[in-house]
Structures
1.
Amino acid sequence: MSHIAVIGAGQAGSALAAKLRALGYEGRVSLIGAEPVPPYQRPPLSKKYMSGEMELERLFLRPESFYAEQGIDLLTEAHVSSLDPERMTLRLSGREEIAADKIALTTGADPIHLPQEMGGGLPGVYTMRTLADADAMAHEFAAGRRVLIVGGGYVGLEAAAVAATRGLEVTLVEMAPRILARVAAEETAQWIKALHVSHGVDIREGCGLDGLSPVQGGHLAAMLSDGSRIEVDFVITGIGVRPATGLAEAAGLEIDNGIKVDAFGRTSHAGIFAAGDCASFPWKGQRIRLESVPNAIDQAEATAATMLGQEAPYVARPWFWSDQYDVKMQIAGLNSGYDRVVTRPGDKPGSQSHWYFRGAALLAVDAMNEPRAYMTGKRLIEAGQSPDPGALADPAVPLKSLPLAATRAA
């Protein structure tokens, strides 16, 4: 019986294994995960799960019974220590060697931890990536406590929103000149910053963490780069992630900002594939890596089809979202290379959208509590069409009747 082994039991791995069965594969499927629980959703960890709005069972992508019913051998707490591409085998730490006809790497990304010399190993210092991370800090979220959040990206901001909503005193530091510096325009960053400030969050931009030290009472003293010192009860770091490529690198696979794959999910070694946060792939003349749930699912399913000989290139349609307080932020497209941002007022108070252009070509849209703007922008981007910027900025011109610019999006 043929055997496909999927290494990494996150969103991409779960989607890939399920798609193999949906496409009629009857061989053995192994889904190998390092965590002690079935595949689960990561985005709610810093949102609804942390806030207590989502229970553990709702976090799971599928009931545990699904894997047995589909004949998927789900291995939890299984760490793959090595991969031999020539022999097509993988070894589990402290366990047996497994042979496979094809292997998929869906190993995701790992958080960047605060260095030990800066206090990264101290009690009360947390990262936010896994279910275990969220559970470990759950007891810290009590009204009146003080938290320092290091990093002004979406994960840090979402954690800040949960903490502020639950009555904690929140300080967030971002070493860059502003929050969301890598992923959003200044217009979006300022809108989000104002939202947090209105909820009492102390946001310090252009301010980094120099180090942490324990102080009396189990608290932590944080020395900041602006020369100030604050005492907090705990710290959450959200300073980015790196693609989990260690296994692939050790096996000699080609790496390029992630495991390098072609448009079909094939790595540099025949029989080995990759998908999700760990993989970089060709897109519109460049090579990108997307850290998003939609990409993890869609790329994994396209890769599963390739593994079964049903080849069709994966065409990414990037979209993302973030929940902060009562705001749902929805993002369509990638804003890389933009030279102009058009702001469109929302239909209701507390709503707005920012549209990214390169020349006359629409690249992306950030929509805050503006689902119609998001859907319109997503549809235009996927169709390669661009609205007239002047008409777009005029709230009197309905979204559905926006005239199109002459230039098509690249």
Note: The first helix runs from residue 11 to 22.
2.
Amino acid sequence: LTLDDNAGSPVDTVQVDSKYPTELGITVKVETGTTSGKKLTFRCATLGIEEVFDNFTLDDIADVNLQSELVTLTDLESATVAPNNLPKNIAATALTGGDDDFVGITATDYVNSLTAFDDTNLGGGQVAIPGQTASSVLVALKSHAEAYQRLAIMDAAFGNDVSEMLAVDTTTYRSNAAALYYPWLKGPKLDGTSGDKWFPPSIAALGACAHVDRNEGTQKAPANIAVPFAYDVERNTDGSTMLTDTARGSLAAKQINVIAPITNEGLKIYDAQLLFPVGETRLRFIHERRVVNLVYHS
């Protein structure tokens, strides 16, 4: 969002960008400052964050950029003489446009990003690259988890039906340090606009791990846990469920953890199996792996 200055013929003076790529809906409000300058309010209703910078002048841009969790400001160096080079007052206005460059990110980039966590001082826990299902990414997640005593949580590819999932060759990324989840989840768009959005199942699995850590302990399997934000999962083209009892049993036999609707209970995570290789007899369930990881790092 580009803010105009207070000149008679307004020109651009400050640019406001989301600090991180997001669809969460960030608004900008500009008012007259309490004692001088301007009062800037940045708000993200979805995250419940509101930031207020009162008595703002262009000299404060660096401080705002350092303190804000939501935005980055850029001085567009308006030719208007101070103090009329300050932003013009506006009602709460959403950030629009921009380019997060996701299209330019390759599987190799995601794989290389894991090196940021190549530090045992970061401890155990889970590692995931939500929504990324290329074989090279899943193999890298597995290798990272094994090397640093962590749990890799993997996503099934979007659009796979049960027969396609059962046909997937998981050999190269099977491990007693990895878990695979299926299918993708349907929920509301996070920017507040109408319509649905598809989310990778790994985010529900990560949340379930955090839930049991906080409420019961790492020894508890992150299963039979409701998914709070989603209201459906992928279905057959005719709208019928893919996840019959028979289908769930077949997927479980292949160590694929299913998220499915339960009557009167909403969506729940079934099972908590590791994607263990053939012959594995020691660690076969997620809570077992997570307890071992906890002991190791402790």
Note: The CA atoms of residues 169 and 243 lie 20 Å apart.
